[in-house]
Amino acid sequence: MPGLLNALCSRNANRLEANLQLQLDDLYALLKCSASNDIHPAVLKRYRAQILSISTRLLLIPSQLVLDGHFFQNQNAMYIGSGGSASVFYQRQGSSEIAVKAFLPSQDAQKMCFKEAVIMALLQHRNILPLLGVIGAPNSFALATPYMRNGNLMTFLLRNPGANRLELVSFFLNNPGAMNDYPTAKALGIANGLSYLKSCGVCHGDIKAVSYYVGFSFRGDTNDG
Questions:
Q1: Is residue 83 classed exposed, middle or buried when 0-12, 13-18 and 19+ CB atoms within 10 A define those classes?
Q2: Cα 17–chain centre separation
Q3: From CA 100, how far away is CA 69, in angstroms rounded?
Q4: Could you report the per-residue pLDDT of 64-120, keeping only the tens digit for each?
Q5: H helices of 93-150, where?
Q6: Helices and strands, number each (H, E), in the chain
Q7: H/E stretch holding 163
Q8: Spatial separation of the C-alpha atoms in residues 54 and 81, rounded to whole Å
Q9: Rounded distance, CA 87 to CA 92, Å?
Q10: Neighbour tally for 187: CB within 10 Å
């Protein structure tokens, strides 16, 4: 009898998890396909909070974010650096260059990975580094993003001491080009990205030069929330 009860409980638990996964996927799809003016900002914040709560409390993530396990291969990746909770690798995928943030093994690695992934995935802004997806394997979790060849803001300034710091922090270049293209800047950059985060109810929490990446068009992209 105990064995039968355990089997029934396990089956019900699996069914409940499957239902929650479907609800999570549907809610995420709704947010991604809806134009920003289709849903009231307060409702958007509530939906984002619901997705984040499900992901971190139940360790589920929208299926749309899961990448194939072969997407990241350690043997083909180049180590870039590491922080307190993760190491970062560079890898080519066909003609694309990607950066992979691999969380160090810990009890909270999956939770940290899923939380950061959901927050990044629900943000859509030209000055916010986009998420390509989540790479999951037993005891190993990682985030994939586009690789910013110009590096973070600190590295870029060390390599380009003549760069206009104010414009790098404040502006986004509409058309890629050389350093003398800075005067053509027309839209806000890092400041614009931070303003967008605030409008979404997201607190960056770690504002420093190494948290911002410089794209090919020399715009400042926010990451590492």
A1: exposed
A2: 24
A3: 13
A4: 999 876 566 666 688 888 877 888 899 888 788 899 998 888 878 888 899 999 988
A5: 109-121
A6: 6, 9
A7: none
A8: 31
A9: 17
A10: 13
Report d(CA 116, CA 101) in Å as an integer: 11
* DSSP classification of residue 128: B
Q: What confidence score (pLDDT) does residue 35 get?
A: 53
- Tokens 């800047």 locate to 185
Model pTM?
Answer: 0.75
Nearest to 209 by CA among 141, 154, 163: 154
Average pLDDT over residues 41-53: 83
Residue 105's closest CA among 87, 118, 120?
Answer: 87
Tell whether the torsion through CA atoms of 62, 89, 217 and 195 is positive or negative.
Answer: positive
Contacts of 74 (CB under 8 A, 6+ apart): 89
For 107-162, write each residue's pLDDT tens digit: 788 888 999 999 889 888 877 888 999 987 666 789 999 988 878 788 888 888 88
